Amino acid sequence: MKFDEAYSGKVFIMAGQDYNQADAVIYGMPMDWTVSFRPGSRFGPGRIREASIGLEEYSPYLDKHLEEVSYFDAGDIPLPFGNAERSLTEIKNYVSKIVHDGKFPLGLGGEHLVTWPVIQAVHEMYPDMVLIHIDAHADLREEYEGEVLSHSTPIRKICELIGAHHVYSFGIRSGMREEFQFAKQSGMYMAKYNVFAPLREMLPKLAGKKVYVTIDIDVLDPAFAPGTGTAEAGGITSAEMLDVIQLIANANVEVIGADVVEVAPIYDHSEKTAIAASKFIREMLLGWVK
């Protein structure tokens, strides 16, 4: 995909045709090469775009219309099927271009490992960045079954890159004992089970910071998002996630990029997961892109 060409496939609703004039760039990362349970998240980006066609362009939550923000849908990054290492390199190079062009990168996953090369690219531009991680899973393993490239490892890798004290995780309700011990000992922040209340308490401490936000759709309870590879009971509602997005939008932080990952549409014939994800993307565009 060339950035100076409009994507010829299905795009997110009301996406513009001009990359150069866009403030934000939506792009897909259709990779699920390292999942530990159910594959299928590589089909997430396309289905989120398709579901967006059913959205209203106006958000009553933020009292804004999509015509008020300039964004371009670049389509999906062409990734080498099954090759995790090369795929991560392609993602990093792709996002580096977006970031260095001064645009807001808004990624659609794909498994959660795709966030790792995105953060590498963003960190090069913003070395003082912090991460807000919203997820059911800690993702703090060093490896899974001997494989260091796994969707259970990205937050551990990010801790090592930007410093654990710059990582803030919310909604965590699953992981190995060692992952929770690492969170306690490393200096990172972890809020178990809940998102809104601990995030509201923490955001004033991040005032003025440059923040990247990664959202794993499985932070939602499976009742609201069954279409994901590793569903975990006990999560938040889709309404609570909308409240979280608005909370960040109204906070004194600069959001410099974001992603929504782990939508696996094959497990949700009702399409509620993709519908929720597309609505989250709309709110992120309206609330976070300056």
TrEMBL record:
SUPFAM superfamilies the UniProt entry points to: Arginase/deacetylase (SSF52768)
Pathway: Amine and polyamine biosynthesis; putrescine biosynthesis via agmatine pathway; putrescine from agmatine: step 1/1
PROSITE patterns on file: ARGINASE_1, ARGINASE_2
Enzyme class: hydrolase
GO biological process entries: putrescine biosynthetic process from arginine, via agmatine; spermidine biosynthetic process
Catalytic activity: agmatine + H2O = urea + putrescine
Family: Belongs to the arginase family. Agmatinase subfamily.
Protein name: Agmatinase
